Amino acid sequence: MNRKDFWFDLPDELIAQAPIDRRDRSRLLCLDRNSGVIRHQYFYQLPDVLREGDCLVMNDSRVLPARLFGKRETGGAVELLLLRDLGDKTWECLVRPGRRIKTGAILIFGENELSAEVVGSANGGNRFVKFNCNESFAIVLERLGKMPLPHYIHQELEDAERYQTVYSRVSGSAAAPTAGLHFTDELLQRLEARGIGLCFITLHVGLGTFRPVRAELVEEHEMHSEHFDISKEAADAINRTKTAGGRVIAVGTTSCRALESCEVMPQSGFTDIFIYPGYEFKCIDGLVTNFHLPESTLIMLVSALAGRERILQAYEEAIRDRYRFYSFGDAMLIL
User: Fold this and answer.
1) Among 117, 88, 89, 115, which residue's Cα sits nearest to residue 102?
2) Which residue among 56, 80, 117, 231 is the one 20 to 30 A from 189 at the CA level?
3) What is the pLDDT at residue 247?
4) In this structure, what is the dihedral angle of CA atoms 287, 293, 296, 299, given to the nearest 10 degrees?
5) What is the 3-state secondary structure (H, E, C) of 98-165?
6) What residues have CB less than 8 Å from 70, skipping those under 6 apart?
7) How many angstroms separate the first and last alpha carbons of the chain?
8) How far is CA 214 from the centre of its chain?
9) Torsion of CA 230, 231, 237, 242, to 10 degrees
10) Sign (positive/negative) of CA torsion 169, 170, 173, 179?
C-alpha cells in the first residue's frame, strides 16, 4: 500500500481549535463496518447506540504539563518537551534549539526553582536531561509546565483540564487520548445504568502519535513505542464481556493498540504495534475515535477496522456535513 492511498482534502476551517462548551455535545458519526451505513447522532446518545453487555475500554492516562520554557545558564532561551520518564528525575526530551544544546549544558526554569543538565543524546536528536529541584519534581512541573497541545492547534487553552479526560488518573502522556474527551461523569453514569461496562487501561501517549508517515510504502514505516498497562481487573472485565457475547469497544486508538498488543492479559510493557489494512483484530469489536490526519498511522488503523474505502467515504460525508476534525473535534463510532 502507498501512503498516498490514505490522503484526503480537509478545509482548514474544519480543524477544531478549541473544545466545545459541553464535552458530550460533540457530534457522533456511526459507521457500520459491515454494511457501510452511516448514521449521524450526538455523543450524549451513545448509551442508546450501544447494547447492554457491551464494554467500553478507556485509556486513563493523564497528560503531563510537559512543555518547559527556560534559559541556558550561558544565556539564550530554551524549550523542552518531556517525552519519556527514565527514572531518577531523568527524561528523554525534545529540545529547542536542538543544535545549540549540547551534553553538559545547564538549563534554568522559573525563578531558579528548577534546573537541569543535559546528560546525553538520544535517537532523532532528542536529549537525555536530568532535573534538579528542592521539592517534588511533579509539583514543580505542575507549576511551571504548559500543556503540550498538538501542532495544528494555534489557540491557547483557557482551561487545561479540557485537554484531559474526566477519568484521567495516571500521569505520563505527552498528548491526550482524545477520543475520551467527549465523556462526562454524567454520561459514564448513564452508560453503566444501561448495563454497558466500563473498564480502564493505561497507555502513555507519546509524540510519535503525531509523527508523519514519510515512507512511500506503508509497510516500511517505523512505529514509535509506548508503555501500556492492562490490569487483572480490566482483563477480567474484557474476558467476561467476550464470554457473555458482548462487544469490546476500544475508546481511542491508544486503547485499541494496547489491547491488540496482547496475546494474553493481564499484561504490561511497551508496544510498537502498527495496525494497517490487512491486520486481523484479535480483541476489539468496535472503536470510538476522532477524525484523523491524512496519511497518518491513525487513519490507517481505522481503515484496517472498517476498510479504507468505507473510511474515506465516511470522511467525505463528515467534511460535507461540516464535522469538526482532530483532537478537539467530533467523534466516530465504528461497529
Assistant:
1) 117
2) 231
3) 98
4) 30
5) HHHCCCCCEEEECCCCEEEEEEEECHHHCEEEEEECCCCHHHHHHHHCECCCCCCCCCCCCCHHHHCC
6) 77, 78, 79, 80, 107, 108, 109, 110, 114
7) 24
8) 20
9) 40
10) negative
Q: Do 328 and 16 touch, CB atoms closer than 8 A?
A: yes
Q: Read off the C-alpha cell for 24.
A: 458530550
Whether 235 and 266 have beta carbons less than 8 Å apart is answered as yes
Phi-psi region of 189 (alpha: psi -120 to 50; beta: other; left: phi over 0): alpha
Query: Each residue of 122-138: pLDDT tens digit?
Result: 877 899 999 999 889 98
Q: Which helix (H) or strand (E) holds 91?
A: strand 90-96
Q: Count Cα atoms within 13 angstroms, Cβ side, for 300.
A: 24
**What Å distances lie between residue 36 and 25, 66, 199, 209, 226, CA to CA?**
24, 40, 28, 27, 32
Distance of CA 293 to the CA centre of its chain: 13
Q: Are 14 and 323 in contact (CB under 8 A)?
A: yes
Task: Give, in degrees to the nearest 5, the angle at Cα 83 between 198 and 12.
Answer: 75
DSSP structure class, residue 254 = H
Structure-block grid coordinates of residue 310 = 468505507
The edge-to-edge listing of strands for the beta sheet with 55-59 is: 38-42, 27-31, 331-334, 286-290, 248-251, 55-59, 197-203, 226-230, 267-271
What does DSSP say about strands 197-203 and 27-31: parallel, antiparallel, or unpaired?
Answer: unpaired
d(CA 187, CA 29): 18
Q: Which domains does the chain possess? A: 3-63+158-334 (3.40.1780.10), 67-144 (2.40.10.240)
pLDDT tens track for 75-133? 899 999 998 888 889 999 999 988 888 999 999 999 889 999 999 998 778 999 999 99
Whole-angstrom Cα distance, residue 219 to residue 304? 13
